[in-house]
UniProtKB/TrEMBL annotation:
Protein name: HTH cro/C1-type domain-containing protein
Classification via SMART domains: HTH_XRE
Top-rank taxon: Bacteria
GO molecular function, a single term: DNA binding
Length: 374
C-alpha cells in the first residue's frame, strides 16, 4: 500500500452510532426501522462494511436526510483510506496536456521512463536546464517566440534541429548552393532523380533532414541555422507528391539563400504551391514562394498557358507543355488543380517521390529513428 496524505475520515458507522445514542435507539431498533437483519447494521457501525447506494437511500428515509449525505460520508472515508497515486501521474498529465509526449515516446524521441527522468528528457529535448523553462510549460519565466508556435509544431522543429546537429557537412557555400539550384532544376522531370537532393545539398554545406510530421502538425518544411554558417532544411514530406516536394524544397532553399531564419526559424505550414500573393504574407515568405513557383514551372509561360487553354485542359496539351518546360507533368497538373480548384484533374500525374528521397537522406520517421542522443 502507498502512503496516505489525506486526513483520515471516520467511517460512516461512527456517525450512525452517535445518531442512535442521540435518539435513544439500539442497533436492533434501527434494523427494525430499516427492515434488515441486525447483523447488517452492526457491520456498518463497526466499520466492517460500507454503505451501499441502496442502504444510503434507506438510511436517508430513516433519519430524514438526503441519501447523498450518507453517500458522501462513505466516499470521503474511502478516499481517505485510498493509497496516494503514482506521483508521475500529475507530471505525465501536465506534459501530455501541452505536448504529444506519448507520440514522441512512440517515435523514439523520448524514452518511456519514470516521471523524474521523463522531465529531464523533455528539458533536454527543448534545450533548457529545467522543465519550467520549456516553452508552453513556463509559469513565471520570460516568454520567447516559441510560445507562439503550437506545441506539436515546436516538438517537430526541435527534432529537426537535433537530427541536423548529428550531420557532418562541408562549410556552407552560397555560390555552390546557387549552382546546385541549377542542377536540381535539370532533375525535375524525373521522379527518381529526387534521390540526388540530399547529396547535392550536403555538398553545399546544407544539412537536409526529413522528419515525419506529428499528427495534426500540418508542417511542410523549415529553414533554420545551427549558427550563422550552418543552414538546415527540414521537410516533413507529409504530402507525398512530386509537385509539393519540389515546391517546398525550393521554397526552403530560397530562405537559405536569402539568409532567412537566422534569428527565428522559418517554419512553413500548409504552403500554397502556386506562388499567389497574400496581403498578410511576410516578405520572406513572399520571396520564397515566388522563387519556388518559378522554379517548378516558370511563371510567365504557365500564366500564358492557362490563359490560352482554359477551360479545355486536355491531357495531351498538359504533357506537351510540361515537355516544353522540361518538367514532370505532375508539376503542371498541380498548378492547374489549384487555379481551377479541381483537385481530381489528371491526379495520376502527381506521382509519389518519398520512396526515392528517403533512402538517400537523413530521416526520422517513416519507420526509421535517427540516432540522436539527448
Amino acid at each position: 500500500m502507498g502512503n496516505h496524505t489525506t486526513t483520515a475520515v471516520p467511517a460512516p458507522g461512527v456517525f450512525l452510532k452517535d445518531e442512535l445514542e442521540e435518539r435513544g435507539w439500539s442497533q436492533r431498533d434501527l434494523a427494525y426501522v430499516l427492515g434488515c437483519p441486525e447483523q447488517a447494521v452492526n457491520m456498518i457501525i463497526s466499520g466492517k462494511r460500507g454503505i451501499s447506494p441502496e442502504m444510503a437511500k434507506a438510511l436517508g428515509k430513516a433519519f430524514d436526510v438526503p441519501a447523498e449525505f450518507f453517500v458522501n460520508l462513505q466516499t470521503a472515508h474511502d478516499l481517505s483510506k485510498a493509497s496516494d497515486p503514482d506521483p508521475g501521474v500529475e507530471c505525465r498529465a501536465m506534459l501530455q496536456r501541452h505536448f504529444p509526449i506519448r507520440e514522441m515516446i512512440k517515435r523514439g524521441w523520448l524514452e518511456d521512463t519514470d516521471s523524474e527522468m521523463l522531465s529531464v528528457q523533455v528539458a533536454r529535448f527543448f534545450k533548457v536546464e529545467k522543465l519550467d523553462q520549456v516553452p508552453h510549460l513556463r509559469y513565471a519565466a520570460k516568454k520567447t517566440h516559441y510560445d507562439e508556435t503550437p506545441p506539436v509544431q515546436l516538438a517537430w522543429l526541435f527534432r529537426v534541429r537535433q537530427v541536423a546537429e548529428s550531420i557532418t557537412v562541408p562549410a556552407y557555400s552560397e555560390r555552390k548552393l546557387r549552382e546546385a539550384v541549377e542542377q536540381l532544376r535539370r532533375l525535375i522531370a524525373a521522379p527518381e532523380e529526387t534521390r540526388q537532393v540530399a547529396r547535392l545539398l550536403g555538398e553545399c554545406g546544407v544539412r537536409f533532414v526529413i522528419v515525419e510530421s506529428l499528427p495534426s502538425a500540418k508542417i511542410d518544411g523549415v529553414c533554420l541555422w545551427l549558427d550563422k554558417q550552418s543552414p538546415v532544411i527540414g521537410m516533413s514530406m507529409s504530402r507525398d507528391r512530386i509537385d509539393n516536394f519540389w515546391f517546398v524544397l525550393r521554397h526552403e532553399i530560397e530562405h537559405v539563400l536569402q539568409k532567412h531564419g537566422q534569428k527565428t526559424e522559418c517554419l512553413d505550414v500548409e504552403l500554397s504551391e502556386d506562388g499567389a500573393a497574400n496581403a498578410n504574407e511576410p516578405d520572406d515568405e513572399r520571396i520564397a514562394n515566388t522563387a519556388a513557383a518559378d522554379f517548378c514551372v516558370p511563371t510567365a509561360p504557365m500564366n500564358d498557358f492557362i490563359a490560352r487553354v482554359r477551360p479545355f485542359f486536355s491531357e495531351q496539351r498538359v504533357v506537351l507543355f510540361a515537355q516544353r518546360m522540361n518538367v514532370h507533368p505532375g508539376l503542371v497538373v498541380g498548378q492547374i488543380q489549384r487555379r481551377t480548384n479541381n483537385h481530381a484533374f489528371l491526379k495520376r500525374y502527381q506521382v509519389k517521390v518519398r520512396q526515392f528521397v528517403v533512402p538517400a537522406a537523413t530521416v526520422d520517421g517513416f519507420g526509421q529513428v535517427a540516432p540522436v542522443n539527448l
